[in-house]
Amino acid sequence: MPLAVLVALALDRAFGEPPARCHPVVAMGHYLSFMGRRIAPLVVEAHRRPALSFILGGLAWCLGVVFCGALAVVAAWSITGWPWWAQALALGVLLKPMLSWRMLRDEVRAVETALADSLPAGRERLSWLVSRDVRHLGEAAVRESAIETLAENLNDSVVAPLFWFAVAGFPGAALYRFANTADAMWGYRGERGGRDWTWAGKWAARADDVLSWIPARITAALLAALSPRRHWMELPRHARMTPSPNGGWPMAAMALSLDVRLAKPGVYTLHAAGRCPLRADTERALCLGGRVVLALATTSALATVALAWRNLA
What we know:
This protein is mainly α. The protein has eleven helices and four strands; from the N terminus they run H-H-H-H-H-H-H-E-E-H-H-H-E-E-H. It is globular, with a radius of gyration of 20 Å. The chain has a two-stranded antiparallel sheet with strand order 1-2. It starts with a helix and ends with a helix. It has one domain.
């Protein structure tokens, strides 16, 4: 229901995130944290049970999907008898926690603000957003990481939830949000928090790869279409440079759109011919991301008008 998308985006713009105590994604995180301590072995024991870790990770992921899916189906079913406009409002309220543009925008901007104070402050603020070691990053690397995070999470936190909402309604958005959160918490190669996630998190990582495959390319296409710099032919080559089958698409599209280099040292370099990003480039990246969100809102508004016209005809 496109009106529900408009409601969700309007709520996000006006209020941001709901309180943590009633945020469904926070509840997903509690579940994943609880189960993670039981499926991922301590690093010293990792060599003993790789197959068991993989099986337990898959079972825990599936159990979470069943639980989240059941709650989402019940929530959607409970409003089926309401008037269409009331259903749209209720669905918008339910959908809002599954997406987050305002928080992403504010956090990336906060990194740039902190960086203006000092490099250590910028690193500290960036550590809220990324899992990589930020202690030795220079100013350009901090800015690159923030822009990369903006591009990748534009897909994970906005485009992909709305894509799955369009495909499968509120349950689709909720299941994607769970899968993406599971990947963020479990999908590591190697050690994190004293536990080895090589096999325990593999199921979650692969599931997120599958569910994000189409949305990541939609996000890249939107960024390219809304960029003043035309780079359609270059995009696929750069997008394939990252280990992730999906993350490289929005990040490469952002790098090419801004004509800047984005890199993770020792892993990949996107648009190596680009210049180092400057302070103004962070704001340009935020503006481009905002155009994507506006395009989604405009599309939803036009679809709402078209449906209303058809109902009146």
